[in-house]
Design brief:
The complex is a heterodimer. By secondary structure, chain A is mostly helical. The radius of gyration of chain A is 20 Å and the shape is elongated. The two termini of chain A are 20 Å apart. By secondary structure, chain B is α+β, with helices and mostly antiparallel strands. Chain B has 2 helices and 5 strands; from the N terminus they run αβββββα. The radius of gyration of chain B is 22 Å and the shape is elongated. Classes of the chains: A mainly alpha, B alpha+beta.
C-alpha cells in the first residue's frame, strides 16, 4: 500500500513542485523589474513536466544481492525545471528584459495552475478517503 | 511551496522599493533648499539596484547596492539679501528635479504594489496547500 500512496497524487505532485518553481522565477523577475542589466528567467513547463514524468517511469535499479537497498518504493526527487532567459519584445536602455505586464500574466497563470493541481490532488485524496470509509 | 523563497524574493523587492520611496521623499523634502557653497547644498540621492544572487537557488531577489548622489551642477541664484549668500550675493539651489522625483515615486509605488500582490498570492497558495486533506 505504501507504493500505492506514492502514486496517489500522480502527476499532480510533480506539477505542484514545478509550478512552485515557476512562481519563484516570476516573483524574482517582478522583484528585479527595475534592476539594470537583469535578464528575465522562466522555465519551460512543458519540457520540465515531460522530463519529470519520464524520470518516474525509468527502469528500477537492479538488485543483485539481498542486502542492496530497494529503492523502488522511494519517491523520486522533486523535478527541477531548467531556467531559460526570456527575450524582451521591447528592449530597454538599461539592459533589463523584464516586462511587468507579461510577468503579471505569467504569475497569474502559474498561480491558477498551482491551484488547479492542488484541487486535483485534493480530489484524489477525497476519493481514497471515501473508499476507506466505505460510504 | 516547500521552501519559502517566494517570501524572500518578494520581501527583498518591498525593501528595495521602500528605500527608493524614501530617497524620493528625502529629495522632494529638500527640493527648495539653498546653501552658500556648491558643495554644501543638498544633492539629489538615488538608490542603485542590484540582483541579490543566492548561491543555493537560481531565483534572485533584489537589493540596494548603494545610494549615489547626483553629480549635476547646482543652480546659482543671485539673492544678495539671503543670509547664506556668498560675497557676490549668490546662493546655490539643490539639483533636485521635482518632476523626475514624482515619476520615480509613481514607478516605485507601482513596483511595490506588484511585489505586495505577489507576496499575498504566494501566501494564499501556501495556506491552501496546508489545508490539503482536510
Amino acid at each position: 500500500m505504501a507504493a500505492g500512496l506514492d502514486k496517489l497524487y500522480g502527476i499532480h505532485a510533480q506539477s505542484l513542485a514545478l509550478q512552485q518553481q515557476r512562481l519563484q522565477h516570476v516573483a524574482a523577475n517582478i522583484a528585479n523589474a527595475d534592476t539594470p542589466n537583469y535578464r528575465a528567467k522562466d522555465i519551460d513547463f512543458q519540457t520540465a513536466l515531460a522530463q519529470a514524468a519520464g524520470a518516474s517511469d525509468s527502469p528500477a535499479l537492479q538488485r543483485t544481492n539481498d542486502r542492496h537497498l530497494n529503492i523502488a518504493g522511494i519517491a523520486t526527487a522533486a523535478p527541477a525545471g531548467v531556467a531559460t532567459e526570456r527575450d524582451s519584445t521591447q528592449p530597454s536602455q538599461d539592459g533589463n528584459t523584464v516586462e511587468l505586464h507579461r510577468e503579471q500574466a505569467a504569475f497569474a497563470d502559474a498561480a491558477l495552475r498551482y491551484r488547479a493541481s492542488l484541487q486535483f490532488a485534493q480530489g484524489r485524496l477525497t476519493t481514497l478517503m471515501s473508499a476507506i470509509r466505505g460510504e | 511551496m516547500s521552501d519559502f523563497s517566494i517570501f524572500r524574493i518578494a520581501g527583498s523587492a518591498l525593501q528595495a522599493q521602500s528605500v527608493r520611496l524614501n530617497t524620493v521623499a528625502s529629495n522632494l523634502a529638500n527640493a527648495d533648499t539653498v546653501a552658500g557653497t556648491p558643495d554644501a547644498v543638498y544633492k539629489a540621492r538615488m538608490p542603485v539596484f542590484e540582483t541579490e544572487l543566492n548561491a543555493a537557488a537560481e531565483q534572485a531577489g533584489v537589493r540596494v547596492s548603494e545610494i549615489v548622489q547626483s553629480t549635476e551642477e547646482p543652480t546659482r541664484i543671485h539673492r544678495p539679501g539671503h543670509p547664506d549668500a556668498d560675497e557676490q550675493g549668490y546662493v546655490y539651489a539643490t539639483n533636485v528635479n521635482p518632476v523626475e522625483e514624482m515619476v520615480n515615486m509613481i514607478s516605485a509605488s507601482r513596483s511595490y504594489q506588484t511585489s505586495a500582490e505577489v507576496l499575498n498570492t504566494g501566501k494564499d497558495l501556501i495556506l491552501k496547500t496546508l489545508e490539503l486533506g482536510r
